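Renewal narrative, Specific Aim 1. Our central claim is that a sequence can be written position by position from structural information alone. The example that follows is taken directly from our test logs and has not been curated for this report. It begins with the structure tokens describing the chain, in the order in which they were read.
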């Protein structure tokens, strides 16, 4: 295994944030501020290349089982959500090809009557992609404002299924209906999951990684930095999901919100309603602490070299094809891919290293070139990974 990356910048950011967050949490009862839009003068990592659909531009709470969320009392759900500053709820609508009975046109209308946007979410496996797409699409006909696709371990290696699912789903909901992908935060730790298909052309407009730092076993700031670094290359807005289960502290809740804003996230959401203790509902309602220093919140880009494999390489190969270079999209950083990278670097006046570093990614993504650190691939997390099938 390669040596794990150290995080001096994000640890300094976390230290600076801790005092500010602690100060802010003293002011209870103030309505939660919305996460600000990314700066017009800086491309922040979470901003991505697409505009975030309106239904996903407001902070939200996830609901797994409606009956366990304030007893299924829609009015109580609306009251609690608004008190915490949430403008939306994400309610489970389907598992594989089976539509859940809790997600009905009547339930959607009742939640909307409380002033909430309602997004459906579906857990998918990839074994029957057409049936899954049909079940997911029903949410749109039931009045959902968007659909979030939850693809995790079961979908690893299922590239054809992902393409088929997205094709059928888009044909049913239309090209503009808001779709989002949620999955593991560390793309390089799950290299066989088809992120590049779900987030590809005609795919989801938004990327929602599950940054469950306590579950992962990493420091919060480190988890956010790693997540932003490896997800930014998909060029989709990143809306990180935080955790209210496993008893995070109130300062951690505040720090997550502040870091997300610093990275340019248009909104955030939390897993999960029924698992959120009373004290954290209070923490969620606190005013947002603005980021301390934008420069600290630059996570860099993933470094790819010959011999690497996985979905990040597939994403690289698609971007190389966009420049007119001939490569196979096979997820292997082979000699053909290396030649394409060196050709691009030579033509654009970059150092001809054959390594895909920060400046090479920026050229491929058509972003202003500003030197940034590209860390080496990292070791696997020491703890668990983001929630899998058993938690959904």
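The sequence written for that structure reads:
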């Amino acid at each position: 295994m390669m040596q794990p990356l150290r995080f001096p910048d994000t640890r300094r950011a976390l230290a600076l944030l801790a005092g500010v967050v602690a100060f802010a949490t003293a002011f209870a009862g103030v309505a939660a501020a919305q996460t600000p839009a990314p700066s017009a003068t800086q491309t922040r990592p979470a901003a991505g290349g697409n505009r975030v659909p309106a239904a996903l531009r407001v902070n939200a709470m996830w609901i797994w089982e409606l009956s366990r969320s304030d007893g299924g009392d829609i009015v109580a759900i609306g009251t609690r959500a608004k008190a915490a500053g949430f403008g939306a709820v994400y309610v489970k609508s389907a598992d594989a090809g089976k539509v859940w009975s809790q997600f009905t046109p009547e339930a959607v209308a009742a939640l909307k009557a409380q002033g909430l946007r309602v997004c459906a979410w579906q857990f998918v496996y990839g074994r029957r992609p057409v049936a899954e797409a049909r079940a997911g699409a029903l949410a749109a006909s039931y009045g959902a404002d968007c659909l979030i696709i939850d693809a995790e371990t079961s979908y690893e290696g299922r590239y054809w299924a992902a393409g088929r699912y997205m094709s059928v789903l888009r044909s049913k909901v239309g090209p503009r209906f808001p779709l989002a992908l949620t999955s593991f935060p560390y793309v390089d730790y799950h290299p066989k999951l088809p992120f590049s298909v779900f987030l590809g052309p005609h795919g989801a407009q938004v990327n929602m990684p599950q940054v469950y730092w306590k579950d992962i076993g990493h420091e919060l700031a480190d988890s956010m930095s790693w997540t932003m670094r490896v997800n930014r290359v998909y060029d989709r807005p990143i809306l990180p999901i935080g955790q209210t289960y496993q008893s995070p502290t109130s300062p951690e809740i505040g720090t997550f919100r502040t870091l997300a804003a610093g990275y340019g996230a248009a909104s955030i959401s939390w897993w999960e309603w029924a698992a959120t203790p009373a004290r954290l509902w209070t923490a969620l309602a606190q005013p947002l602490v603005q980021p301390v220093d934008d420069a600290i919140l630059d996570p860099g880009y993933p470094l790819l070299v010959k011999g690497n494999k996985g979905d990040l390489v597939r994403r690289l190969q698609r971007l190389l094809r966009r420049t007119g270079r001939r490569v196979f999209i096979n997820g292997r950083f082979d000699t053909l891919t290396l030649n394409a990278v060196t050709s691009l670097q030579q033509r654009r006046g970059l150092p001809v290293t054959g390594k895909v570093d920060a400046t090479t990614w920026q050229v491929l993504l058509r972003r202003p070139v500003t030197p940034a650190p590209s860390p080496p691939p990292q070791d696997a997390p020491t703890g668990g990974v983001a929630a899998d099938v058993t938690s959904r």
